[in-house]
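Dear colleague,

Following up on yesterday's call, I've attached the two folding results inline so they're easy to grep. Please treat them as preliminary; we haven't cross-checked anything against experimental data yet. The first protein's sequence and structure tokens come first.
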Amino acid sequence: MYLMQEILQVANGRNGEAVKRLQWIHSLMQSQPGFVRAQIAQYLGNSMRHLVLRMWEDRESWDAFRATPEGSSYPQSRPEGLYAQQPCGRDWRLLQESNGRATGNFLVRSEFDVAHDRWDDYLTIRKAQDRIHREAGGFQYAWNFKELGEGDGALLLVRKTGREDHMVYVESMLKSQLRDTSPQGVSTPRGDYMEYYEIIDEVTP
């Protein structure tokens, strides 16, 4: 699965306008071949910052949509001054996913730099963490992506029922034991170790 991630800082007083526009853009994608889902998530540390995730079966499906009249024209219709800064986006490929039985709109986002040739260790650690998430409760899924291009960037998205269930995981003795017994030097966090979001809109085919 291919993921286009954007981080948007909306101009003051234009939050509702920005969300409606994103919903419209995602409605253009909804019926396109290869479309998987699109999410709008509001950063819980700043209500004017949004994480936008657009998922496709592969990069070719995204490129095919962008070649349509709708896909090529929507960026030109962006209202002036809608964003306080230029949108920041990157491309990712799904490497591993785990699923639970719960549902929720609490999203935890983390990025890492993975040491060269340590991807197997990285994904093994992630699988072990997913088992702890399941035991902690409130676990819907964990998706692990690799940044497209020449770098070794990793993106982790964990969806849970709420902050309370996530804090059970954070404070788990099993998580502490895993940290103490896991291989060292596998990855380094980028920026804040964890960012918390609420998914406020989701579109699927």
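Below is the second protein, in the same order (sequence, then structure):
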Amino acid sequence: MDRRNFLKNLAIVGTAFTLKMKGGMDVFAQTIANQAENSVDLVAVLGGEPDAMFQKAIAEMGGIGRFVKKGYKVVVKPNIGWDKTPELAANTNPLLVKEIVRQCLAAGAKEVIVFDNTCDNWKKCYESSGIEAAAKAAGAKVLPADESSYYREISLPKGKKVKDMKVHQAILDCDAWINVPILKHHGGANMSISMKNLMGIIWNRRIFHVSDLQQCIADMCTLEKKPVLNVVDAYRVLKTSGPRGKSVEDTVLSKALFMSQDMVAVDTAAAKFFNQIREMPLSDVQYLSLGQALKVGTMDIDKLNVKRIKI
């Protein structure tokens, strides 16, 4: 959908947002349903900068200390797959990564590691994305993931197509890890969000593309050591030409963030949001329903306690 014809009334997770066009998109009004007093399952934030939106969302989820304890070894896993700069929206926003690392260390984490098994040359990806500099500035260690020796094999007894896979040792050895994908179009899987982002923690992923990619993504997410938190960066969305992107014209400045412990739920919410930018029915993102069938999470977000925030 052309940006000039973008819907001015954006329906997201059952709530209407009004958008004002200023070259990109800025949220300036919202109707918010009353929230229950019990714990929040999913948070949607619109209208702020990446770090500010994370601050709002994590506060609603009970604070970073709910997920990261003193002395923990933590992994923050963004998408750093491409040798692209932040305005092209192929990788997670570096400001978001920096804030997550900062908060983990402030909560008492012993160390925070950032890595991704990139598609382009890893050194160029880490540099061009701005993530290496941002992560190190916040106090994180940045590790490579370009050699098979960094990975150990695990079994996936619940998988349909994928029965085992090699997982990066940083994930296997940490006390907690946080999944930080960017919301974007993907030529093979249609959408790349939290579940798809796990392809960056494994080594033997090439077989996914010649097998059944949607089922393989769902299978991969049955791993026992799931992320303690999933934070979807939708500050700038790659609406077409994904997963790499070609130009800024392929992107939309949507200024949004979604957060949940449930990968399927947060991806369902993010996919609904993306569907307002470009038509993408949930049925086209098959790994959502396949993941639900494998009990990875739920697509039925209407039954969850969802907190919606406008900055």
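For the second protein, one point worth flagging: Residues 3-310 form a domain with the Rossmann fold fold (CATH 3.40.50.11440).

Best wishes,
A.L.
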